[in-house]
Amino acid sequence: QVQLVESGGGLVQPGGSLNLSCAVSPSIVRSDTLSWYRQSPGNQREMVATMTPGRTPTTKYIDSAKGRFTISRDHDWKFVTLQMKDLEPEDTATYLCQLISGLSGKISWGQGTQVTVSS
């Protein structure tokens, strides 16, 4: 049973930065697909960034995140991070970590961490 726990959210001023972290237990498997989603009240959940499996993973971003957000995982295969810079009020949302098991296809979600961009 994979468990995901996000952290790192908070209140930041426009133009600021935040680093979100998703702790994965027991661990990330090379074949897993890792993603960050976000959801704000009244809006659908949207994929912000995703990292596809492989020896050299590829990454994809929603257009509004390109050049500002970076998804990565650590060398110990325990954490997925989302580095965010130049934050805008429109980035305000609950950010959730998702893992799709490459072995079973099962989709796992974390509980989310709140990001608020406001002056």
Description:
The termini are far apart. This protein is globular. Strands 2, 4, 5, 6, 9, 10 and 11 form a 7-stranded mixed beta sheet that branches. A 4-stranded antiparallel beta sheet has the order 1-3-8-7, with no helix packed on it. Strand 4 and strand 5 form a beta hairpin. The protein is an all-beta fold and 119 residues long. Helices cover 0% and strands 50% of the residues. The protein has no helices and 11 strands.
Summary of the model, kept short:
By secondary structure, the chain is mainly beta.
Topology, element by element:
Layout: E1 3-7, E2 10-12, E3 18-25, E4 33-39, E5 46-51, E6 59-61, E7 69-73, E8 79-84, E9 93-100, E10 107-109, E11 113-117
Parallel strand pairs: 2-11
Antiparallel strand pairs: 1-3, 3-8, 4-5, 4-9, 5-6, 7-8, 9-10, 9-11
Tell the overall outline: globular
Helix content: under 10%
**What is the strand content?**
over 45%
Q: Give the rounded overall mean pLDDT.
A: 95
* Number of alpha- plus pi-helical segments: 0
Number of strands: 11
List unreliable stretches of 5+ residues.
none
Query: Main β-sheet, in a few words?
Result: 7 strands, mixed
Rg (CA only):
14 Å
List the helices and strands in order: EEEEEEEEEEE
Terminal residue distance = 40 Å
Class based on secondary structure composition and strand pairing:
mainly beta
